[in-house]
Amino acid sequence: MRKIILLGYMGCGKSTIAKTLSRIIRIPFVDLDEYIEEKTNLSINSIFEKHGEIYFRKVEHEAFLELLNSSEEMIIGLGGGTPCYANNHELLKGENVVSVYLRASIETLFNRLSANKSKRPLIANKNDEEMKEFIAMHLFERSFYYNQAQYKVNVDNKTIDQVVLDIVSILA
Ligand SMILES: Nc1ncnc2c1ncn2[C@@H]1O[C@H](COP(=O)(O)OP(=O)(O)OP(=O)(O)O)[C@@H](O)[C@H]1O
Ligand SMILES: O=C(O)C1=C[C@@H](O)[C@@H](O)[C@H](O)C1
Ligand SMILES: [Mg+2]
């Protein structure tokens, strides 16, 4: 069954957009970060702290494969880094997959993330200046992987409903 995959940098709105999209098109939504937290019984922060990022990427890849191989139709909101590790980007073009990159500018990401960074281990300890620089560099490194998505939707200065409608028209 079809999998609708939302991807993009931390804070681009994957979880928020997927929740509204799910209500409108009546397809269940699974957030990969939450799925990993349930599966391991650990928060993403504790997985990073206790086992390190490499272990997290392994678990993330396995969890992504499990969801892709399930028989149900679903919307999957990826983690911010999912497409950039373990060749996960190749899975974005698979059969029965519709992948959408939610593209946000550095400014949009900075504004959204500076308000809420404690649950995001990669940026939790950075001040504003460091965070701006980190986002700019990281987004540049990751863009190649994000651009492997079949569709791209700009989210800057759009409401949640506008972004959801853009995705609904892609799916029509
Ligand atoms: N179109 C939008 N307009 C305004 N605010 C938005 C929009 N989309 C998301 N937000 C806000 O931006 C913040 C980040 O959104 P969200 O947590 O959904 O991002 P994410 O991509 O799931 O991040 P992560 O990869 O860290 O899980 C939230 O506070 C959310 O309410
Ligand atoms: O951008 C990233 O690499 C991450 C984003 C989050 O969704 C989590 O998956 C984790 O904090 C790593
Ligand atoms: Mg999220």
TrEMBL record:
Cofactor(s) recorded in Swiss-Prot or TrEMBL: Mg(2+)
Subcellular location(s) per record: Cytoplasm
Binding, ATP: G11, C12, G13, K14, S15, T16, R120
Organism in which the protein naturally occurs: Flavobacterium xinjiangense
InterPro entries: P-loop_NTPase, Shikimate/glucono_kinase, Shikimate_kinase/TSH1
EC number of the protein: 2.7.1.71
UniProt record, GO biological process: amino acid biosynthetic process; aromatic amino acid family biosynthetic process; chorismate biosynthetic process
Pathway the protein takes part in: Metabolic intermediate biosynthesis; chorismate biosynthesis; chorismate from D-erythrose 4-phosphate and phosphoenolpyruvate: step 5/7
EC class name: transferase
MF annotations from Gene Ontology: ATP binding; magnesium ion binding; shikimate kinase activity
Protein name (Swiss-Prot/TrEMBL): Shikimate kinase
Function: Catalyzes the specific phosphorylation of the 3-hydroxyl group of shikimic acid using ATP as a cosubstrate.
Classification lineage: Bacteria, Pseudomonadati, Bacteroidota, Flavobacteriia, Flavobacteriales
GO annotation, cellular component aspect: cytosol
Manner of cofactor binding, per the entry note: Binds 1 Mg(2+) ion per subunit.
Keyword vocabulary terms for this entry: Amino-acid biosynthesis, Aromatic amino acid biosynthesis, ATP-binding, Cytoplasm, Kinase, Magnesium, Metal-binding, Nucleotide-binding, Transferase
Residue numbers binding substrate: D33, R57, G80, R142
Reactions catalysed, as given in the entry: shikimate + ATP = 3-phosphoshikimate + ADP + H(+)
Primary location group: cytoplasm
Subunit structure: Monomer.
